[in-house]
Specification:
By secondary structure, the chain is mainly α. The protein has one domain. The chain contains 2 helices and no strands. The longest helix has 13 residues.
């Protein structure tokens, strides 16, 4: 629910605290590279 500020804040904080590997699409990887983000890629 995008109207629930507490729920959104909780989700954002949980994303910052997680150490997990996420699946990334080709488009997402291209965007990260173009933006100059520091990334590590595992195949």
């Amino acid at each position: 629910d995008v109207e629930n500020e507490d729920e959104i804040l909780e989700w954002l904080l949980s994303q910052l605290e997680k150490d997990e590997i996420e699946d990334v699409t080709d488009e997402m990887l291209d965007r990260l590279v173009k933006e100059g983000k520091t990334i590590a890629v595992l195949f």
